[in-house]
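Let's study my pick:
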Amino acid sequence: MRKVLSHIGFAVLMIWVLLACSSRPENVQVVDQLPVIYPDYVGVTVPVGIAPLNFSMKDDTFTDVDVKISGKKGGNLHTNGSFADFDIDEWHELLEQNKGAQLVVSVCAQKDGKWIKYRDFTIQVSTFSLDEWGITYRRIPPSYVLYSHMGLYQRCLADFEEHAMIENSQVHGNCMNCHTQNRTNPNQLVFHVRGNHGATVIRTLGRDEVLQARNDSLGGSMVYPYWHPNGRYCAFSTNKTAQVFHMSNNKRIEVYDMASDVFVYDTREHVAIKDTFLMKKDRMENIPVFSPDGKRLYFITTPVRDLPKEYNKVKYSLCQVSFDEATGRVGNQVDTLVNAHTTGKSVTWPRPSYDGRFLMYTQLDYGYFSVWHPEADLFLLDLKTGESRPMDEVNSNRSESLHNWSTNSRWFLFTSRRDDGLYTRVYFSSIDERGHATKPFLLPQRNPKEYYRRLLYSYNTPDFTSSPVDMDAREMGRMLESSERQAIQALQSLF
């Protein structure tokens, strides 16, 4: 009898706990308006397998939400609490069941002890798959000269798990720079470290090499990289970067190059191939990118200016040149795809879709360091027609940049400051065969309002990864702190 009473007492206690945690809607007032939620997931399109789109009411005076989701093809979810927190397994089952169909989301929210029922909204579950395991990125705090804790991280897209690949605590506070994989392949990657232990790390066929960071024959460090699809070559820019601060402007800082060139690195022969067509003294070439078939090299270029005096006259055009993978050399004819003289604007961060159909780039008023330019927007170049357009369905009134494609070319991610104007966050969008993109959605977090308000870091250079990156941070730190470096031979090619 005592055991039975004990069970009854436990059951009563659990009911009391559940009731105390959240209240159920009653005496509900119905309003004909959509809920204002954070993040804004109203009307977005998502892939099967994405982590739950948990959300809160944007207005902090709301204390509770009650959310029901039903699928047009069947299935439903329900959650109740201070924020919408969906069960991960049930969420994935609902999306799988409703691939190609809509989810209908019903929201009730409590404010000042009163419940309000909002108009339902929909979430579209895409027919386009997102086959990548997750994403990689750098997280960096606000800094101009000094940097503190930072690192390279990877995040599973099916849940909320994040892991550090390497942090600068493993290299005595050096700066961890851009991490780039070859078409999302974690067995071919490159990243750069700046500071006392500066180096460029290249992984080919699963083997890591630490290259000499600065080479006098290159004229600077190996900076913005992009892999050739065959994995043998990696194109780099070499940059001499400077920065100035605005005193009365809607921009905080201007980052620019005093000089920059483009070269191709042969990972097999440890040779930097320098072509005069990519290293002209009267021009600055930057941000090289190979075409998906490996037969062309895209890059941006601008005439040399009197810097920093003419910083706002630096405007880059987008160009292409042929590439011969048998020799690692470029051709002798440069074609202009987007002309800065014609548009009056500047191009940066070109990224072709892997199916060869489109090329996405960022356009801004001047310069190339777009993350500090609020006017920076994403543009889409149709490689078949040569026509280019602003991606109005994606852009905001704040900076958009640092975009990359999924391997099937049906999804892309990018960074934006649209959230608070201070920190760059990662957004996702789907794109169809005609080049029309869907409303972007913010990288999901379990409690997104709490997470993003507390995160005083910006996401930088994000990309998809097909599987987790296997990196022993301690061993990588040991390699970087040692004096062992792979020497690079510079090979000059003249026309």
